[in-house]
TrEMBL record:
<feature type="binding site">
    <location>
        <position position="24"/>
    </location>
    <ligand>
        <name>a divalent metal cation</name>
    </ligand>
</feature>
<comment type="similarity">
    <text>Belongs to the RNase HII family.</text>
</comment>
<dbReference type="InterPro" id="IPR012337">
    <property type="entry name" value="RNaseH-like_sf"/>
</dbReference>
<dbReference type="GO" id="GO:0005737">
    <property type="term" value="C:cytoplasm"/>
</dbReference>
<dbReference type="InterPro" id="IPR024567">
    <property type="entry name" value="RNase_HII/HIII_dom"/>
</dbReference>
<dbReference type="Pfam" id="PF01351">
    <property type="entry name" value="RNase_HII"/>
</dbReference>
<keyword id="KW-0255">Endonuclease</keyword>
<dbReference type="GO" id="GO:0046872">
    <property type="term" value="F:metal ion binding"/>
</dbReference>
<feature type="binding site">
    <location>
        <position position="167"/>
    </location>
    <ligand>
        <name>a divalent metal cation</name>
    </ligand>
</feature>
<dbReference type="GO" id="GO:0004523">
    <property type="term" value="F:RNA-DNA hybrid ribonuclease activity"/>
</dbReference>
<dbReference type="GO" id="GO:0032299">
    <property type="term" value="C:ribonuclease H2 complex"/>
</dbReference>
<keyword id="KW-0479">Metal-binding</keyword>
<dbReference type="GO" id="GO:0006298">
    <property type="term" value="P:mismatch repair"/>
</dbReference>
<dbReference type="GO" id="GO:0003723">
    <property type="term" value="F:RNA binding"/>
</dbReference>
<dbReference type="GO" id="GO:0043137">
    <property type="term" value="P:DNA replication, removal of RNA primer"/>
</dbReference>
<dbReference type="InterPro" id="IPR001352">
    <property type="entry name" value="RNase_HII/HIII"/>
</dbReference>
<keyword id="KW-0464">Manganese</keyword>
Amino acid sequence: MLPDLSFEKKLWDRGYSLIIGVDEVGRGSLAGPVVAGACALRIENHESRIMDRDFDNKNEKDNNIHDSCFMIPDSILKLGINDSKKLSKKRREEIDPEIKKYFYWAVGEADVGVINRFGIKPATEKAMRQAIIKLLYQVLDTEDKITSKTALSRTAIENMRPFLLLDAFQVKYIPIIGLACQQAIVKGDEKSITIAAASVVAKVYRDNLMRNLSVENPDYGWAKNKGYGTKDHILAIRKHTAMCWPRPNSGRT
């Protein structure tokens, strides 16, 4: 069964407009950065409509303003967006540009230095925070034609009415959004389209990055193993790295 928009629709009906799915890739690898993807369905691709009903007064109408239905283009559902781990390399690369047509998207990364200094969890949070903030700037620029980073004010963020859906994770210190507007979903990339889309964007980005790093550091076979702990990769780390750190600094500095 493919991920769907069940979580997103519930949040839209609660009044949230910008539902941001977030996922990471590379957290369990032995080399290279941890990369986070963030995706949110573009405003023009879903349309809220107040259900037909009679209102006795303005207050009743205001109270029901978010009792809405959303029209999602069939073309989005037909993409077959899924957890990146369940898609072949070819399929991920096919749907990655299609996802970017329908979704706001951004990536963030934490390099090897950050991982080795602070640990993988804080590094993952840093990558996710970066991706989320970059996406918020993108939405603001697209909607209001504002490019100045000083424009990302409390009012600007609140007007987006954002909510985060994350794959079994929560991220501290997101400006204005905080922890209150986050939901950690176990196996979220198998349940939510926006989280699954984020997983694909992050995976394609990181795989390309590791292929490029492999050209600079051919001894580790990163083009093939993407930094994960295959037998050949572990042997290469032991052979070519003076100290067998969790992640060789040659991976990304």
